[in-house]
Amino acid sequence: MSGLPAGHPSRRGTRARGERSRAASAALHAVLVLASLVALFPIAFIALVSLRGESGWAHPMEMAGFTLANYAQVLGRTGFATWFLNSAVVAAGTMLVGVLISASAGYAVSRMRFPGHRSLMWSFLVFQMFPVAVLIVPLYNLLGRLGLLDSHGGLIITYCSVAVPFCAWMLKGYFDSIPADIDEAGRVDGLTPFGTFWRLIVPLARPGLAVTAFYTFLTAWGEVAFATQFLSSEEHYTLAVGMQTFVGPHRAEWGLLTASAVLIMIPAGLLFFFAQKHLVAGLTAGGSKG
Amino acid sequence: MTTALTNSGTAEAIPGTERNRDRKRNPGGLLARARRSYADHWYAWAMVLPVVAVLAVLVGYPLGRGIFLSFTDANEANIGRTIGDFEVPATYRFIGFDNYWNILSGREGSFYPRLSWTVVWTASCVLLHYTIGLGLAMLLNRRVRGRSLYRVLLILPWAVPPFVAAFAWKLMYNTDNGVLNALLAKAGVGAVDWLGDPLVQKVSVVAVNTWLGVPFMMVALLGGLQSIPRELHEAAEMDGASAWQRFRNVTLPGLRPVSGTVVLLGTIWTFNMFPIIYLVIGQAGGTESEILVTYAYRLAFQGVRDYAGSASYGIVILSLLLVFSVFYRRLLGRQEVAR
Description:
heterodimer; A: mainly alpha; MetI-like fold; 2 domains; two-stranded antiparallel sheet; disordered N terminus; B: mainly alpha; two-stranded antiparallel ribbon; 15 helices; about 75% helix; about 0% strand; MetI-like (chain B)
């Protein structure tokens, strides 16, 4: 598959622009269909297994015994609903704090040149490199002293250590893509730099803010390492921690696991479906001018 | 001022800076200039203050503490803590560079094997992400019937949180009851011990991460491809450039701004990719396929918690990434100049 980018464009050369031979067209579709199948297969498989009851996972090739028992059990007799809510609260909290704090900094870095500008840009990048291992022990001790271990607030604080530099970095790229003439116009009309930012740029950058918020949400939603260590009581678990209890050395409740996986993927998939156009635009704006 | 000049790469991307510079070059007098620059900077600093404060507390302090711990022999037994009203004082000692020496001299025994696997893991994942992502992006960038359907399907893995994907693949990899082995059996091939054998284990986790990471690259590169002006391709075609030449000399350079960023970010993310390794194989006991990050994590939270060792590992990982990104940026910068 890795030969594709090299090999494929050559098909275009001999024909008029935008036209393809029938064979090339078939090959194109074949590759895309194959790739789509690979992308879809694990998801479809999980959905299938989830519908086949408690021990259906042990016979992956059978197509019988469909039941919703796993879903009933996940929703009724496990902490899934609580965990789902916990994850949502933590992810939404991280998202709000991250975007709110970092938006003004992203703007300042994008528009103004000031002593410390370069090192700040650099640190936004560097802070994304921080491995869990450097921060986790000190943060664990710090939160322990503040009594914030095993709480959602503590987890939000922890996630902000990653989310804030990421948001600032993304938003800086976004603000770069907004013409500076708009700032000038605001300034001419007597707005302060902050006024310009708040009244002119923020409304214009709304798609960028949304995309950045979305990524931040996603990162916090899927975080495993910190949550696994910091949360100790089951009613505070996030999904990533809670689902680990389904499948462990002594337990293999794959039915429950697959059912909750499907329940997690449905809202995420819908969100992606509606957001994907903006995601593309957001990434290029954020990515190309880092 | 100097920053704005040396930073011309960025300045070009921002139309406004050019104008700013002109304005500053014709000042209305020394005092006015000083006042204006003070006002500018005062504003800028006020606007970045929240972020700087948060980062100082949330990253600066833990980093300092991590560095401190890495010079001690702190572990669970001597770190000091409060049990009820009773306070256990900390008794760990300062031991200088011993931790680093242990790790870097290979005496501790797991650094170099972990490091080489981490490098292989990162390189193969990023390479696969990039090539497959670019290939698919180029296909999707053409006029294809059902393009938006393909795009939605191909983006789907991205919507799956990594921990869910890890569990899903773990089930598929199951030796006795997994679907992959069942498919192989249908095809008349014997069962593969996907998560047992060290080498196969590694291939398996790379496959999971590739499945998960390609959509991101594809979407990013698709955006990059769409931003390359069509005229460039047409002009190259007029001049008789072959498809391969057009790919080399139009597409790749046009993608460079996007590629540079996503490859750098992808490398950092993959190097630190925790959930896949930890959830797919990490707990099963096999330490062969652990990367540096999961190994350091295990040091800190399993058995006798070796806080100092884990912190030292963390600092080493961070230094490696820093060195890498400095060189990477240099390299990109030099290519830019060479053109």
